[in-house]
Amino acid sequence: MRRVIRSLAALVLLTAATLVGAGTASTAAADSCYTWNRTLSEGSSGEDVRQLQIRVSGYPAYGEVLALDGSYGPATRAAVTRFQQAYGLAADGVAGPNTFNRIYALQSPDCSPAHFSFAELNRCNTTWAGGAVSAATARQNALVSMWKLEALRKALGDRPITVSSGFRSVACNNAAGGAANSRHLYGDGVDLTGTPSFCTLAQRARYHGFNEILGPGYPGHNDHTHVAHRSSRFWSAPTCGI
User: Fold this and answer.
1) What is the three-class DSSP state of 168?
2) Catalytic residues
3) How far is the C-alpha of 176 from the C-alpha of 162, rounded, in Å?
């Protein structure tokens, strides 16, 4: 009888250990770029919230721009929900292991998203210097733009998007004939070419956090679509109905 009891006890312990192991299997793994160590929800605040906001900055409401302020408010919850919906996750607006694991799968060790790179966003120089802001700020601005582009790409059915121009120093901007106040000088301006059509890119970009969208019909933009961040909205692509 004692042997039976000991055997049953051992079985219970083994079952419990298996269940614990099954529970930890859904825990987000450490990442070489950035690791989240807690579940985030409305009311949370801190650097981990701001890092999440960067990754979901391409999922605001139409015409909106998500603030990267480290405060998990209703807008961040809504953006997280749209991100979760885009990737087939339980869409509850709470960022937990499944959401973080999806982000980890998307980002590279340098924190850029899967389908865009810092080299692609800067064909001017290797230092990010010489623009209208510090090199560090220009590079950070480009990172945010890349995550918005990743969301745009996803919304277009994972169709590749070609970047023809990104960050420019003053010298590079002058050589390209860019405007004196071009957003390229700040690191967040990006010119898009290739497929899908320029109008499709401009129209869809309205849903992905870009305050500046210029495209066909706007002077000098018939051969590309330009997206960027700025303090106030300026969209103009008359040929596309924008």
Assistant:
1) coil
2) 221
3) 18
In this structure, the strands spanning 162-165 and 212-214 are: unpaired
Taking residue 127's Cβ as centre, other Cβ atoms within 10 Å add up to: 11
Residue type, 111: C
Q: How many Cβ atoms are within 10 Å of 171's Cβ, its own excluded?
A: 12
Gap between the Cα atoms of 122 and 67, Å rounded? 24
Following DSSP, what letter does each residue of 201-216 receive, concatenated?
HHHHHTTTT-SEEE-T
Tens of pLDDT along the chain (242 residues)?
444 333 434 433 333 333 333 333 345 567 899 999 999 999 999 999 999 999 999 999 999 999 999 999 999 999 999 999 999 999 999 999 999 999 999 999 999 999 999 999 999 999 999 999 999 999 999 999 999 999 999 999 999 999 999 999 999 999 999 999 999 999 999 999 988 999 999 999 999 999 999 999 999 999 999 999 999 999 999 999 99
How many CB atoms are closer than 10 A to CB 65?
A: 18
Instruction: Give the number of other CB atoms < 10 A from CB of residue 190.
Output: 29
**Are the C-beta atoms of 210 and 188 separated by less than 8 Å?**
no
Specify burial of residue 202 (Cβ count, 10 A radius: 0-12, 13-18, 19+). Answer: buried
With beta carbons less than 8 A apart as the criterion, state whether 83 and 66 touch.
no
3-state secondary structure of 124: coil
Exposure string of 73-90, with b = 16+ CB inside 10 Å and e = fewer, is: eebbbbbbbbbbebeebe
